[in-house]
Amino acid sequence: VAASNNLTVVGTETYEYRGFATVYPCGTRPDVSNLNFTNSMTVAGGVVSPVDRNGKVCVYLYGTADVLVDVNGLITS
Description:
By secondary structure, this protein is an all-beta fold. It has strands at residues 2-13, 19-25, 35-37, 43-50, 57-62, 64-75. It is elongated and about 40 Å long.
């Protein structure tokens, strides 16, 4: 089962030169990003991620920002 989401970061501040956001099934975080950003950006994108066994996803943020997640729906087999 996977979730289709719109992910938006607003009011971004980064460490060093860039930041990123990753959506993943809660547990072990993968070494990938779904959105990349620099300071003072608003960035949005579509993300499809598997859900964990409780039907949840987690969001990891490297940097600081307000994070908005809109769930579009669930994809089942």
